[in-house]
Amino acid sequence: MAKSNTKNQAGKLNGESPAKAPPLPAGADLPTRYAEEQGTGGETHQTTSDAALTMTTQQGVPIADGQNSLKAGPRGPTLLEDFILREKIFHFDHERIPERVVHARGYGAHGVFELTDSLADYTRADVLSTVGRQTEVFVRFSTVAGNKGSSDLARDVRGFAVKLYTKEGNWDIVGNNIPVFFIQDAIKFPDLIHAVKAEPDRGFPQAQSAHDNFWDFASLSPEAWHMVMWQMSDRTLPRSFRTMEGFGVHSFRLVNAEGKSTFVKFHWKPRQGLQSVLWNEAVKINGADPDFHRRDLWQAIESGDFPQWDLGVQLFDQETADKLPFDHLDSTKLIPEEDIPVRIVGTMTLNRNVDNFFANTEQVAFCTQNVPPGVDFSNDPLLHGRNFSYLDTQLKRLGSPNFTHLPINAPRCPVSNFQQDGHMAMRNPVGRVNYEPNSWGDQGGPRDNPEIGYQSFPDEMQGTKQRVRSETFSDHYSQARQFFISQQPIEQKHIGDALVFELSKVERVDIRARAVSHLLNIDEGLAATVADGLGMALPEPAKAAKPTLDLPASAKLSILANGPDSFKGRKMGILLTDGSEAALFTALTEALEAEGAVWEVVAPKIGGVTLDDGTAVAAKQKIDGGPSILFDAVAVLPSAEGVKLLAQDAASKDFVSDAFGHCKFIGVGANAKPLFDESRVPPDLDEGFLPLGKPKDAQAFVTACRALRFWPREMTVDLDAA
Ligand code: HDE
């Protein structure tokens, strides 16, 4: 491999005479910025060496002056002859590829999946059979509705797509952070997406469902209302990609060596616990840091705090499926964990950030049809539509059927077939034979192999050709109700608030009323709250195909019941000024580090502060760039002198009042009271304020923060709760 390095030549300013590149020794290899072996590991990073890099054209011609185009005289016209200029502009003009039609905004990371419990009894897939087997993965998290440049904290479903590079081919589990979907048949997908995305005449609103078209569609689609309940819950406002569950949604099949089939649903359970932010917080985070989620994931991996998810499976046979009160082929239904427990079979660890966002996160192409031998499909009609759509969409987006040659998509096992040519073919077979059968013996190329090859499960098929929706798909409200009653009161309140917010953005009164008519079939109390919040009379309940069943609550459906039990991996904002107490600051940061938490100093100037013992501490954030919404909890530790300035500063007052309004734990330093008073949040209002007057208080404060939020406060700070 040719040597290359990470250094760039210093750019030259206009008007400067170009620095002369040293002449190349005859026959010497030019160092390159690109790893040659891009076929493994999706790596695109430069290798290092001390050799200076010479900039070249795409054809490898060394460039003497990259700062000035070729002109007829210093003030004359630019010459068409300038192939260096033309090639550079040409390439730039073609840098963009179409963004994904859905899930355009996403962020990914590399990692590994390790199997801890063998499913060999159920599947012949090697990745699920050999305990200890480590399989390379790439994961892409995403929002659905917004464009590539939208913000991370939109109220939206999150994509959770995992590519496992198994020894038997790539396996893509293209899931979401919600276990059900809005529709039951793929033919409705374009309508759903048209309705939720920006309205076509005006091109807005961006990245949100709070508009007439979405609620018009949803209110005319009773099957959507289970998912609508999830969408209106805090599931769509995750604190981090690291604190979300992932779900394969559909039933798949596992097929073992004897050809026996078992249905399976896939779950990814975050070891970090579940956690979300509040709507008011999300709105502000979008302004303060639109990249909040990607930055969070990148920083966690960069610091060595590798996020982990356990892979769980719900396994069931046809007999069990027949006894379920719902049709498991209907993607608007889930199987409560109380009914079929989730068996944990392995762990996924994300341990390597992308080093080229485009080559990894943008070019990765997930396809639900990518399954290894031993994994098969159920008859879920949504899944069948997806199996067509994903391959098709990659052709549009990546421009060639050879997208599988791209490093991030290339299997890590041998690939051998007679497919050839096409745009940008990079994996080109050699030899005379490109067909089968052939009689060229050893030189005849690959052959099919019934022993190890993919065998579709021989499911018996019979039916009348017709366009119908199965009658077994027609109970639309029972699981929506089950979800609602499984939430803790504060979570139920958030669902009500979200519905009121969204429907308040809907201009047509009849659409609002039709939406509320569905809520009456889910929970009358919720319907009444929302109608009241909208200032309207209760409508008649929507006509239901089936009466709502009273299903038991399922604790696994609540975020709060499945939260973390420590402050590990969370972030504390510490507000300091010159003269803040060094001993206290040290005690707090030590307690946080012992907890595995991270912290950032927020100060009046980015240069930092000088503590009372003369120590200089750099700030990570200037106050107006580091609002408290960026942190899970805050400590306010100014000096007696410093607090006077903070008490006059709008950003400092917001820091405190937002932390209060968002129910965060607040550590109150000995000198902090004037700032709280000016912010109209006296620091003795509730038990979410903890004294941080002395170093010995630090541990108690960090321990209190394990609860993440002081929820009782919400009932006192929200108009809708009054
Ligand atoms: Fe997708 N979906 N989807 N979807 N989906 C795409 O494929 C589609 C559905 C999901 O990070 C597209 O490569 C149809 C359910 C994720 O690259 C497209 C239907 C679930 C991602 C597509 C669905 C998902 C996509 C757009 C209904 C959860 C992002 C770009 C039949 C289980 C993957 C692309 C990534 C992306 C089609 C429904 C998850 C157009 C037709 C249900 C996570 O092919």
From TrEMBL:
Q: Which UniProt keywords apply?
A: Heme, Hydrogen peroxide, Iron, Metal-binding, Oxidoreductase, Peroxidase
Which residue windows does the record flag with biased composition (Polar residues)? 1-11
Q: Spell out the molecular function terms from Gene Ontology.
A: catalase activity
The EC number(s) given in the record are 1.11.1.6
What CDD domains does this protein's entry cite? GATase1_catalase
Q: Where is this region: Disordered?
A: 1-47
All copies of domain Catalase core, residue ranges: 56-444
Question: What's its catalytic activity?
Answer: 2 H2O2 = O2 + 2 H2O
* Cofactor needs: heme
Top EC class for this record = oxidoreductase
Q: What does this protein do?
A: Decomposes hydrogen peroxide into water and oxygen; serves to protect cells from the toxic effects of hydrogen peroxide.
Instruction: Please give the family membership noted in the entry.
Output: Belongs to the catalase family. HPII subfamily.
Q: What is this protein called?
A: Catalase
